[in-house]
Write a structure and sequence with these properties.
By secondary structure, the chain is of the alpha/beta class. It has a domain of about 210 residues: Rossmann fold. The chain is built from 10 helices and 12 strands. Strands 1, 2, 3, 4, 5, 6, 7, 8, 9, 10, 11 and 12 form a 12-stranded mixed sheet that branches. β6, α6 and β7 form a beta-alpha-beta unit. α1 crosses α3. Belongs to the MetA family.
Length: about 300
Amino acid sequence: MPIKIPKQLPAAELLKKEKIFIMDEERAVAQDIRPLNIIILNLMPEKEKTELQLLRLLGNTPLQVNVTFMNTATYESKNVSKTHLDTFYTTFEEVKHRKYDGMIITGAPIEHLKFEDVNYWSEMTEIMDWSKTNVTSVLHICWGAQAALYHHYGIGKFELSKKCFGVFSHRLSDPTVNLVRGFNDEFYAPVSRYTSVSYDEIINDTRLNLLSNSKEAGVFLVISEDEKHIMITGHLEYDATTLAEEYARDVNKGIEIDVPENYFPNDNPSRQPLNSWRSHTHLLFYNWLNYYVYQETPYEWE
């Protein structure tokens, strides 16, 4: 089944070329189907790239999905045009009266800041509190995962001695959980962050269940005991070339950065990297939409 997106969204043409089944509003209203309503709080600077990555994954299930993009009102991104934001994005004030079946909160390149020093932290906490009653299931990615662990469970982040950067092997702790149904016992995932969260704090918190961990990269996938919140500390949604683009960007800025681990063939940045995490990414999003959104959300929100 398709995802329903605005007719003129730039990602639409790229998705069509990839044979992702999409549908615009005009065709969608003619179908007598209860679609899933997903809201995406996109905090990433290059919003159009993130839109494409997430829409590609949401469009690969048997479910019809309506997608709404939201940005913060207290901070306006400098890496996307105001026209794009005005055309395709909404703010919390405009949607806070609504109910959503699912929500995605993305990462953001602000992990060097204390949470309270982020200029939209107050708005962020209001949105996260709202999600408890207005959203069936919330998927938090990278900094969004750290923000959720801090706000909902009081688990802070700590700085690493150097950036955790590359594609790392992760082990499942419980393959029977629906979110990781069909996963291999060992899988690979991209990680790109300067901070991490405590393994001990998470496994000792009865409100949380650690689903996967990496010897090199630490905690990766956490689900709350009530299955309301899912936290992913890496970037399964990344394209094959995203880490390469981040590496080139930092090198061009003169930032001291290691070549991403286990990523370029023979650790040679001039060679084309391969995507070794794609199948597990699609599987995770499929499982999330099916087991935690579609199976749990009410047909009619009260």
